[in-house]
Amino acid sequence: MPELPEVETIVRGIRPRLLGRRIRDAEVRWARTLGGLTRPEFDRRVVGATVAAVWRRGKHIAIDLERRGRPAGCLLGHLRMSGRLQVEPRAADPGPYARVRLGLGRGEVLTFVDVRKFGRLRFVADARAALARLGPEPLGPGFTAAWLRRGLRDRRRMLKPLLLDQTFLAGLGNIYVDESLHRARLHPSRRSDSVPAAAAERLWAEIRAVLSEAIEREGSSFDTFYRTPAGRPGSYQASFRVYGRDGDACRACGATIRKLVVGQRGTHVCPRCQRAPRSAIIPAP
DNA sequence: AGCTACTCCTGGTAGC
DNA sequence: TGCTACCAGGAGTAGC
């Protein structure tokens, strides 16, 4: 599923192909992808505008628009589970899962492809306001070891659901949470306020390391959904230590990786590396 | 405050 | 082989 590293890879790939381009037309094949705006309203806001900037915040893709050199709102994309955003020749067969296509001139289109229809490509007048509820960027200056230590201490939630909560920290999903927790040797069901300072600091460092390495590898591909803008699979899946490895040996200690459910989410742990005091584990229902 | 359950969707797969 | 039933999975919302 596209998480921060995959979204970052996509943004880096499409940015040079979108900057300065004018949106000539919009073809909407699945209206819900627009997230509420009617097609005529979406058309009115988007067609004729020029792309001024392309950036990422958490798992969101922001495409700033302008008209006559003045800011004119933003296309805010979220790929959810199966979304893809790609610049391609208009003549290319969009396939059955293309939900929105935006004409860019020069025979090119920006296509939002999404098998499961959970993704969104919304027009918003003010992107910063739309993203205001998100927590800090894990690779940005606002995410410090001290901030995380305090954030864990001040809540009484299971670590995994807390790290998945985008209003706490923006950009982590199921894969990179499991990987980060394993590398920090912390159990996903552990109560956040039971984590000692040293372990919180470890978690901070591992979250940043996992995300940085995954960006270097252009994200993770293990099904047909995620591809880089160049059409290649990412390669970080080869570095997974726990995700999708249930039944295999832990690369750190040799114990068998287990799959369990934490907060209704499939979760991968090494039962030896990720132990915690019984009192600190929030029991499954 | 923080949990579970439910919703949105479809392709893939387990089970028969 | 062909069928059905169920599941995964981000995020929002409702209810406890």
Q: What is this entry, summarized?
A:
The protein is built from seven helices and ten strands.
Description:
With 285 residues, the chain is α+β, with helices and mostly antiparallel strands. The protein has two domains: 4-130, MutM-like, N-terminal (N-terminal domain of MutM-like DNA repair proteins); 145-280, Helicase, Ruva Protein, domain 3 (Orthogonal Bundle). It has seven helices and ten strands. The strands form three sheets. Strands 1-6-7-5 form a four-stranded antiparallel beta sheet, covered by helices on one side. It has a four-stranded antiparallel beta sheet with strand order 2-3-4-8, with helices on one face. A two-stranded antiparallel sheet has the order 9-10. Strand 9 and strand 10 (265-269) form a beta hairpin. Helix 1 packs parallel to helix 7 (197-216). It is elongated, with a radius of gyration of 20 Å. The two termini are 27 Å apart. The mean pLDDT is 93. The chain binds a DNA duplex (16 and 16 nucleotides) through loops.
Rg, alpha carbons: 20 Å
What is the CATH domain class of the largest domain? Mainly Alpha
Largest sheet at a glance? Answer: 4 strands, antiparallel
Q: How many helices in DSSP terms?
A: 7
- Fraction of residues in H or I helices: 25-40%
Strand order in the sheet with the most strands: 1-6-7-5
CATH architecture of the largest domain: Orthogonal Bundle
State the separation between the terminal residues, measured CA to CA.
Answer: 27 Å
List the helices and strands in order: HEHEEEEEEEHHHHHEE
**CATH-derived topology of the largest domain:** Helicase, Ruva Protein, domain 3
Instruction: Please report the total strand number as a whole number.
Output: 10
So what's the overall shape? Answer: elongated
Average pLDDT works out at 93
Low-pLDDT segments, ≥5 res:
none
Structural class: alpha+beta
**Strand residues, percent:** 15-25%
Query: How many structural domains?
Result: 2
